[in-house]
C-alpha cells in the first residue's frame, strides 16, 4: 500500500468511526444559548432543549465548563408565600426515551456562578453535558445577550 492510499484509508476510517459514534448518539441538543443580565455579571445561565431520541430513559446529571467557578443545574420553585426562588437540582433533570426537556428562563436551566471571564455577544462557550446513561456530550453554546424570553401562548399553563 502506498503512502497516499494509507492516508486515504485512514481518513475514510476516521470518518466512518466518527459517523458511527454520532449515529449511536441518542441525545440531541437544540436552540442552546447562554446569557447574563449584563456583560459584567458574575453569573449567567444556559438554556436549551434536550431531546432523547433513544429507547432508554436518561437524565442530565451535570454540566462542566471552565467559564465559571461553579456550574449547577437549577430550577425555579414557588415558596409558601408565592415568591419564586431558584434552587439547585442535585438529582438532575429526567429525560425519558422519546421525549424532550426544555431548559428555559423561569424554569429549569444551567447556572454559572463566578464567571471566570466576561461573556461577549456571539462568543462560543464550550460545555460538557453529563448524562447518567449517555455519558459526556461536548457542545459549544453561543452567547446571546440580546435574546428575549419566549412568550407563553394563552393556552399554555405554567406549572410551579
Automatic annotation (TrEMBL):
Key words, A-Z: Signal
Listed name of the protein: Copper chaperone PCu(A)C
PANTHER family: BLR7088 PROTEIN, COPPER CHAPERONE PCU(A)C
Domain of life per record: Bacteria
Stretch forming the signal peptide: 1-23
Organism (species): Pontibaca salina
Gene3D superfamilies, per the entry: PCu(A)C copper chaperone
UniProt cross-references to InterPro entries, sorted A to Z: LpqE-like (IPR007410), Lxx211020-like (IPR058248), PCuAC_sf (IPR036182)
